[in-house]
Structures are given as C-alpha cells and as structure tokens.
Amino acid sequence: MNEAQSLQRAIDEPVHLAEYDPAWPARFDTKRTRLLERFPAELLDVQHIGSTAIPGMPAKPIIDVMAGVASMAMADALFKPILDHGYVTSVEFNASLTDRRWFMRHAHGRRTHHLHVVVYDGELWHQRLAFRDALRADPTQATRYAALKRELASRHQADREAYTLAKGEFVNSVIAQ
C-alpha cells in the first residue's frame, strides 16, 4: 500500500472500539516529547485527552493529543510546520473550525494520532480536561460512557461524524457538572 492509499484508508476507517490498552499513555508520552522538542517555544502545554486517556475506557485506538498555544493566530502559524512534522489534515475541515486546528497521523491505513491545537487556558482547553478528569475520577460515569460508546460505535460504524455528534449530549452533561 502506498502513502496515498494508506491515507485514504485512514480517512475512511470505520468506527471500531478497542479495549483499553495500557500502552496508550506511553504512546502519548512519546508524542508529547516529540512535539515539545520540535515546538518548544510555541506549545505551552501538551495533554492526553479523549478515551485513550481514561484508564479502562474502550476507545478507537487513536491517541488524542491536545496542544495549547497562546492564540489561534499561533495555531495558524503552526499549520505548515505541523504538516512538515508528519501530520496530515483537511484544509476545508480546519476552515470550519473557530476554536482549534485538527491534524492526524496515520500508518498502514489506520489513524494513530489526532492532534488538536487549541488556545491554552481557553474554554475548549478547560472543557476537554474537565471531561477527561471527571471520567477518571468517577467510575460510574466512565461505565455509562463506555456503554454509550459501544452502542454508538455499533450504530454509526460507517459514520465517524455521526458517532462523535451522538456522544455530544453525554459529554456536555459531564462538563456541566
């Protein structure tokens, strides 16, 4: 499979949940170190978010990385350097985003990492950390979320956007608490 075929397979990859893998935090740590070495002045902090950051949580086996920058102007200035660092993205998709920039790494036709560049200490930064931390702290909430994810992954296997949107109400309810 060539690079173009690998990318297309990663883009079209169905929603598939894997059981929690204790190697996910180490994979995040490796990526965090590489990002901070490459962008030491630009990135104010790098955090592990998403389901792979919650022990015991089933997840799409994609490490979600949130990198904090001083402003969206800085996120835009990093756009090409991040692409040069081995990430890919959709310019059209990013044009629709006002509060972040999104990038992906892939290998062998599968997504491996999502990078969300957001304003450090901004609203989205706090929301993503609040959700992660709430589920880490509350096993009952985490169990409810795991069940919801399994049901939605089954229902929306061929539609990543629908899967993500369908989790929104639960995510917002946890953040609101």
TrEMBL record:
SUPFAM superfamilies: Nucleotidyltransferase. Pfam families: GrpB. This is GrpB family protein. Gene3D superfamilies: Beta Polymerase, domain 2. Transmembrane segments: none annotated.
